[in-house]
Amino acid sequence: AKDDNSLEVDFGALDLSTPHLTLPSSIGNGMQFVSKFMSSKLNDKPESMKPLLDYLLTLNYRGEKLMVNDTIDSVDKLQTALLLAEVFVSGLPKFTPYLKFEQRFQEWGLEKGWGENAERCKETLNFLSEVLQAPDPINMEKFFSRVPSIFNIVVFSIHGYFGQEKVLGLPDTGGQVVYILDQVRSMEEELVQRIKQQGLHITPKILVLTRLIPDSKGTKCNVELEPVENTKYSQILRVPFKTEDGKDLRQWVSRFDIYPYLERYTQDASAKILDILEGKPDLIIGNYTDGNLVASLMSSKLGVTQGTIAHALEKTKYENSDAKWRELDQKYHFSCQFTADMIAMNTTDFIITSTYQEIAGSKEKPGQYEHHYAFTMPGLCRFATGINVFDPKFNIAAPGADQSVYFPYTQKQKRLTGLHPQIEELLYSKEDTDEHIGYLADKNKPIIFSMARLDKVKNITGLVEWYGQNKKVRDLVNLVVVAGLLNAAQSKDREEIDEINKMHNLIDKYQLKGQIRWIKAQTDRVRNGELYRYIADTKGAFVQPALYEAFGLTVIEAMNCGLPTFATNQGGPAEIIVDGVSGFHINPMNGREAGTKIADFFQKCKEDPSYWNKVSTAGLQRIYECYTWKIYATKVLNMGSMYGFWRTLNKEERAAKQRYLQMFYNLQYRNLVKTVPRIGEQPPRTTASTSTAGAAVVRDEIIVRPKERKPRNRIQRMMTSLLGPKRRANK
Fold first, then answer.
1. d(Cα 725, Cα 97) in Å, to the nearest integer?
2. CA Rg, the chain, in Å?
3. CA atoms within 13 A on the CB side of 633
4. Quick check: pTM over 0.85?
């Protein structure tokens, strides 16, 4: 849109010196590219290895040096020490403990951290020697996977009800909570193993930072510090939002209304973290818009390596939400959210995604991040370059499912048969209750099953409508959905209320009672795992009908349990499933086609029962090959180590962009936050709040100031657009 008075932001102009990928097939392999580029940069001149030595000299744990000490003050001395040490350990038995030769290493300027025994030390010494001799990406990656640089990790997930029980299905609370808890368990396991292999006796710590909610709805969200189950060193730390007079805010806040609280939250959370960890964390990981923004603020303040995970970017979920931002802003505050997303994407050192589609999309549809390359919010802001999908910060690391909870239905010895009476009551009792409505008249039919939050994007009501409209599907199978609340009066979530009412209307419209069971959100993961398997016993299937899904954790869970799965072709599930082999893609925009595909599958299974087993087995094989938490944790910790050095290596190049981001945050984002009412406040009544972009932002109109000629220089244009016409006139 042509709008000469809008703020124009061009983050790409500040990345001109940063190398970018060029091949579409390389998108999402940022760490490999960084490794290659660092190898070439360090191989440039003899003195180019000095930054690597300087980085190694910074390694310590609470002041105690690791790997090298200050007696090694040149690359030549380092190479000599490595040679002497490697020859020495080569003459020792493989499993000689490091303590037996620690003193000899110190004589050469080497400290602990190389390995737990002679063999491990020899390998690590060799990796670094190869890098110093002739840097190559393979040895570079191997070496940095051994560097003892990460012991304490902070993970931010702020919105919703973050807890370990009784939270799933509550407003703004779904798969992200499950993802993070499993992520933390896998990272702790990998951290403990690495620290042991490094020959160190250090206790790692992982803190999951979320919001403390005094009115916790029967959950533990009002408990400040809670151990993460099945871990030794991980905790959930809850920090409250503050009212303007400094009191704890008691009630839940929608993720769309959260922005006025985040800056103060960052300050309070930082103080708590520094106290508990007795120092700075080594890695900060943000989740979703709010967690990513707070992670960015803290990372910038403390100088810590940062990773971000979007989970879902709202701009891609709501069609034309950038162009229509003003009509949506009072309800969703997208002006704040999209601005916060841009700040976090450009501040972070690396971005973790679950799929290629999440970044760059497909032939039919742009990816979540690709949508943010260039866009306009008319009258407010134009992003000439927001985020470039060829940026080497993008990395694909797909999560898995907890194998102790989600295992195949065929593993009879592990099955939780004691839960079957509860599950049978949940599925088949005829009475409507506060927990379920509808009933299944024919218990012999297979069940198609879906479980998700009850919001527009998850499209559960869409699935119900497809089912209601397709007589063949209704004749072949029953429908069971687990989603949200059953009574709109009990919900405070705007979208959920609309969807609850729509569900009731659809059940009545298509006369579905006798063929549908609608169960309210279930928070017991263990029982949910057995529920998947029980559905598999009926020779049913799982359906994930979302209009868009960044990844699709329920798809992984269902396939882990051996349940044939139909999932949206919009987003990550299209990569998880090989269509027609390990499951099926469905188009959520074409309910008739999706219904026909489901009907054809069950008709084929009726004619050939072995077909169901074939699809089930192929789904399990796909999971085992590509989607485990072990693979995920290894990748993420390697990113933390590699990008930590990359951050140091490009410190000067980063400085200008960080200053620009700080200015954008202070002059643009903070003003937008003022338009978001706090709990108990009315929306601002002022006719306009002046944007630093040179336009006055109004709820219903834009007051346009006279045009000014744009400076030709790109950097000048960015700076003058940030300062605004008034300030330029006063120069």
1. 68
2. 27
3. 23
4. no
DSSP code for 53: H
Q: How far apart are CA 380 and CA 359, in angstroms?
A: 26
**Three-state DSSP state, 478:** strand
Residues of the chain with CATH 3.40.50.2000: 7-20+149-400+631-672, 412-627
Kindly report the CATH number that applies to the domain delimited by 7-20+149-400+631-672.
3.40.50.2000
pLDDT tens for each residue of 450-504: 999 999 999 999 999 999 999 999 999 999 999 999 999 999 888 999 999 999 9
Nearest-angstrom CA–CA distance, 235 and 251: 23
Q: What are phi and psi of 607, to 5 degrees?
A: -80, -30
107 CB-near residues (< 8 Å, 6+ apart): none
Q: Report the distance separating Cα 671 and Cα 238, nearest Å.
A: 27
CA–centroid distance for 370 within its chain = 16
Q: Rounded CA gap, 466 and 479, in Å?
A: 11
Q: Using DSSP, state whether 277 is helix, strand or coil.
A: helix
Contact 12, 716 (CB under 8 A): no
Residue 516 pLDDT > 50, yes or no?
Answer: yes
Of all residues in the chain, the percent with pLDDT exceeding 70 is 92
Q: Kind and range of the H or E element at 104?
A: helix 102-107
| Residue predicted with more confidence, 44 or 190 | 190
